[in-house]
Amino acid sequence: MPFDWMKIPYSLLTLFIVVNYGFFLNALIQKMGARAGRRYGIPIWQNYVDMIKNYGLRSSITHGAMFYLGPVFRLSGGVGLLLFVPTIYGSYMFSNLSFAGDLILALYFIFFGTLGMALGAGESGHPHAAIGVSRGLAQVSTAELPFALAVFAVALQYQTLSVTEIVAAQQGGFLQWTLFTNPLAVAAAMLGFLGSMMRPPFDVVIAPQEIPIGPPTEYHSAYLALMQTNRAIFPIAKIVIYMNLFFGGASDWPTFFFKVFLIYLWSAFVGVVFPRFRVEQSIRWFLIWAVPLGILSIILV
User: Fold this and answer.
1) Where in the sequence is the domain holding 154, given as residue range(s)?
2) Cut 0.85: pTM above it
3) What total of structural domains would you count in the chain?
4) Whose CA is closest to 250, among 100, 127, 94, 102?
5) pLDDT in tens, 246-285
6) How confident is the model over 14-31, as pLDDT tens digits?
7) Residues whose CB falls within 8 Å of the CB of residue 183, separated by 6 or more in sequence, listed in order
8) What is the rounded CA–CA span in Å between residue 19 and residue 79?
9) Is residue 2 part of a domain?
């Protein structure tokens, strides 16, 4: 089957919309968290100012090629995840570059950026880099495990690895969503979602308010801007996967914006309510509560 080149400009349009919505949601969620703590919070446009400023900076400092490829790999993971899954169900323009079996590729992209950042941090020259890498990979891997189990349960339930076909099977009313037909898989995935978003109470690995090292401080100029761009893309791309697999997908942009906001709000709400976990507490929490739900969802299917 020949490749449809017209999908490329449509995919770039999808990327443009998602980047801007991601910047807006990031600022909105930060502002909501600040208001919960009786603070004012950042302006909605602050992320744009920071990104433009950092893209305009250059640096002569060098730590080796892999250190600077880390943000590139990180951004590639977010962009690839977004472009290889359908954004709007039933739309030719916004189906992106999806194909049958794209669910397995999506799982690879989810972890690709994390591995890239681990390789980059390992070449930073900081004596504690190896500790940060091991802690970060341990927590992220444990958080992704219940999501992977939930994905396997959904694939078994619908007998397909195509995200488009999974969304199609959920049409006909909200009672057809995986949320209601396989609630255990959705529960496991949503618990894992909290850890993969790297928000409180699972953000001690980066802890930007407390640890004066790590990617937010070691990276600079355009490399930091690449990471800021991915912070706008990757959460939305991951939420698109959750929306398609568990919440019936979206057939238009207003539905897309609404569902993405509600799923994002889930992690923001938990982050405001619960205190921060240490890494070993986070791993223990996922293994005790989230992983058994994922295993049980597969058994029941």
Assistant:
1) 7-300
2) yes
3) 1
4) 94
5) 999 999 999 999 999 999 999 989 988 888 888 889 999 9
6) 999 999 999 999 999 989
7) none
8) 10
9) no
